[in-house]
Amino acid sequence: MTGTAIAHDRQPDHLIVAAVDGSATSYHAVAWAAVDAAVHRCGLHIVTSAAIRSGIGLGSALTDADVPWERKNGERVLTDATQVGRTVASGEALAISTELIFEPIVPHLIDCSRRARTLVVGSRGLGAFLRGLLGSVSTAVSRHAHCPVAVVHSTSATDAFSSGKPVLVGVDGTANSVPAIELAFEEASRRKVGLIALHAWSDASGIDLVPGWDAVREREDVLLAENLAGFGERYPDVSVRRVLVRDRPVRSLLDQSEHAQLLVVGSHGRGGFTGMLLGSTSDALLHSVECPMIVVRQR
């Protein structure tokens, strides 16, 4: 292990941890993480693993001859990632630490998540084979991390146009979405943008021909208002647009995400069970939504 390891005595919420593997997507993840760290005035810790590039855990291992090359390559990736972070957070006093490990990345990130504010990963990595490997990393940490997990896709949404877009949060009417709502309000407030709160109140789409839909819609509207109650007083600077649709949650959130800089969802919701750490909605969105996405679980 090289670089500065994450401090085990650091208080939660004081550090954002970003994983990088040298792919364009992972550098987008670092860019997003650097902006979010600057927004929250916390440190950024960038970690890369030689195990990802060498396929450790899939039947191959580093030889003594491999180690110097992997170390040099890892240090190059960390240097490039640090430069990305410094560039996008220009003008901000951002503390950046780095770490090169020679072990599987997923257990390391999950351990880091016990002391981090947010884990940030790219949705895919280098090459056709490694794209699937990094995809499994984002899925694994989203399911098992102890802190919110941000998954960044083909864009970091840190440009001037995207950074003016609102934050989008999925509200499912259960207690599970409350941490997601709270995080979404905080992100919108710190980024000085509005918030779209979307509640998809039916799992079936179609035209309104069934008797009683108006009453159901009114009930779901009340449920959405109840879920948002109190946050307006805590975040008076955040303008909220409530969106109530009778459609499938995944499709509704995908449609609205085109107009958002960030999507925030809970890890499981209506219809899920306690042991299911990642619900069908968040799982489906994880690798399909274009804007950065945060999956929130209760600690």
Q: How is this structure best described in words?
A:
- It is a single chain.
- 43% of the residues are buried.
- Strands 1-4-3-2-5-6-11-10-7-8-9 form an 11-stranded mixed beta sheet, with helices on both faces.
- The protein is elongated and about 70 Å long.
- The model is unreliable at 7-12, 53-60, 126-134 and 269-278 (pLDDT under 50).
- The protein is built from 10 helices and 11 strands.
- It has 2 domains: 2-152, Rossmann fold; 162-296, Rossmann fold.
- Helix 1 (24-40) links the parallel strand 2 (15-19) and strand 3 (43-49).
- The two termini are 28 Å apart.
- With 299 residues, the protein is an alpha/beta fold.
Helix-strand layout with pairing:
Layout: E1 2-3, E2 15-19, H1 24-40, E3 43-49, H2 50-54, H3 66-88, E4 96-101, H4 105-112, E5 118-122, H5 127-144, E6 149-152, E7 167-170, H6 177-191, E8 195-200, H7 213-228, H8 231-234, E9 240-245, H9 249-257, E10 262-266, H10 280-286, E11 293-296
Parallel strand pairs: 2-3, 2-5, 3-4, 5-6, 7-8, 7-10, 8-9, 10-11
Antiparallel strand pairs: 1-4, 6-11
Helix proportion: 40-55%
What is the approximate shape?
elongated
Put simply, the count of helices is 10
SSE-based structural type: alpha/beta
Mean pLDDT: 81
